[in-house]
Amino acid sequence: MKYKKKAKSDFTHIDPVCGMEVSYNTAPAMITHENKTYYFCADACRQTFEVNPELYIHKFNKTQ
Ligand SMILES: [Zn+2]
Fold first, then answer.
1. What is the distance in A from the centroid of ligand 1 to the CA of 64?
2. What is the value of pTM for the model shown?
3. Cα 37 to ligand 1 centroid, rounded to whole Å
């Protein structure tokens, strides 16, 4: 019986702004909001998130 390798999700996070997969090792931008850390593919996405975090968190939680 095959079993899954260590879950990919341990190493990747979804950029809540654009939906891209980013590795926490290489993510160029991150932010901690209400004790949760979000990773972004670019600083521009982080800035977009900062303007209206609730909007993106809502979207993010829906896709999880
Ligand atoms: Zn992005």
1. 16
2. 0.76
3. 15
